Amino acid sequence: MPEEEAFDLGKEFPFFAFVMRELEELRRRVLWCLLALGLASGTLLAFPSWENSYVLRFSTFLRDALLPEGAKLIFLSPLEPMAQMIKLSLVLGVVLSLPVLVWHFVRFTLPAMAEGLRGFYLRAVFLAFLLLALGIAFSAMVLMPMSFDMLLRYGEHAGGEAQITFELFYSFITLFLLTFA
Questions:
Q1: CA-to-CA dists, residue 164 to 65, 70, 94, 139, 174, angstroms
Q2: Number of helices and strands (H, E) in the chain?
């Protein structure tokens, strides 16, 4: 009885083999990006010590820069401050690992560009990355402190007293930066 040949999907359908190669490369690049994000976030959350981590230092900086004199953040559940520090470390981890993310994005998409467009593509991605960084910096240093102060004063003039929770404070910062960047 003659041996039957094994069915090779890649040989029969070259497009399928191409898609499988690209998905394998994409999987590899996504894993590298997740590793960079995890390393950056973990470092921010746990070093130099849990009680004095980089993310806690940054959170103190944000509170001092944005909250009015004497105002304090409140929390409504014991887990809320830790959950917000984890979220903040993830956001900062994305910012810190953005060069790795952009590099893998460019290396994955560059072969799809025609030879004549590759230089334009690289310049456009670099310019977009630069403008995003400048937008985040401008929003964080100029727009956010002014807006936060104006919103708190408006609330006080409307007859309210500001009691800001950890979750709402850090959600405001994240959404503000993403919106105006």
A1: 15, 13, 25, 21, 15
A2: 8, 0
Residue-level pLDDT at 82: 94
Tokens of residue 69, six digits? 């004199």
- Chain-centroid distance of CA 71 in Å reads 28
Angle at 41 between CA 38 and CA 47, to 5 degrees: 120
What pTM was computed for the model? 0.82
> Per-residue pLDDT for 12 more than 80?
no
- At residue 179, the pLDDT reads 87
Q: Compute the distance between CA of residue 162 and CA of residue 11 in angstroms, rounded to an integer.
A: 67
> Which helix (H) or strand (E) is 11 found in, with range?
helix 9-12
**Cα Rg of the chain, angstroms:** 24
pLDDT over threshold 60, residue 2: no
Residue that has been written with the tokens 């929390």 in this structure: 75
3-state secondary structure of 121: helix
Q: How many CB atoms lie within 10 A of CB 30?
A: 13
Per the DSSP assignment, residues forming a β-bridge with 165 are 74
- Number of alpha carbons in the 13 Å side-chain half-sphere of residue 114: 2
Cα 124 from Cα 121, distance rounded (Å): 5
